[in-house]
Amino acid sequence: MTDKHDDDLPTVVLPILEESRQDLWLKTRLSLLYAYTKFIDEYDWFLKADDDTFVIVENLKEMLSHYDPLKKHFFGDVLIRESVV
Q1: Average pLDDT for consecutive 10-residue bins of the chain (85 residues)?
Q2: Distances (CA, A) of 16 to 13, 23, 31
Q3: What is the pLDDT of residue 49?
Q4: What is d(CA 14, CA 27) in angstroms, rounded to the nearest whole number?
Q5: Residue 13: beta bridge partners?
Q6: From CA 63, how far away is CA 10, in angstroms rounded?
Q7: Which of 70, 62, 31 is nearest to 47 (CA)?
C-alpha cells in the first residue's frame, strides 16, 4: 500500500497525496478498506503491521485459534493523543 506505483514490487496505489505521518491514519484506513473489500471472503484475519514489526507467525496462529473470526475483535493498543493548545 503506497502513494506511488513501483515496477519492482506488487503495489496497491492509494489515493493519498503523499506518504507522511500526517496521512498515516488515512493510509491505514484505506489499506484496511481495500483488504476488506477485495479479500473478505478469502481470509479469516488481517494483520496491520509496520516495517519495524516482528511477528512470530506460529504464536499468532495459536492466539487466533481461540477466537471466532466471524466476530469482531481488536488486538493491540489504542493510543490516545491529548491535543496540545
Answers
A1: 81 76 81 90 89 93 96 83 64
A2: 9, 7, 11
A3: 84
A4: 7
A5: 2
A6: 29
A7: 31
Place of cell 503506497: 2
Q: Do the Cβ atoms of 12 and 35 come closer than 8 Å?
A: no
| Cα gap 56→9, rounded to integer Å | 24
Q: What is the 3-state secondary structure (H, E, C) of 27-83?
A: HHHHHHHHHHHHHCCCCCCCCCCCCCCCCCHHHHHHHHCCCCCCCCCCCCCCCCCCC
CB neighbour burial string for 24-48, b if at least 16 within 10 angstroms, e if fewer: eeebeebbeeebeeeeeeeeeeeee
Interatomic CA distance for residues 63 and 45, integer angstroms: 12
- pLDDT given at position 64: 96
pLDDT value of position 70: 92
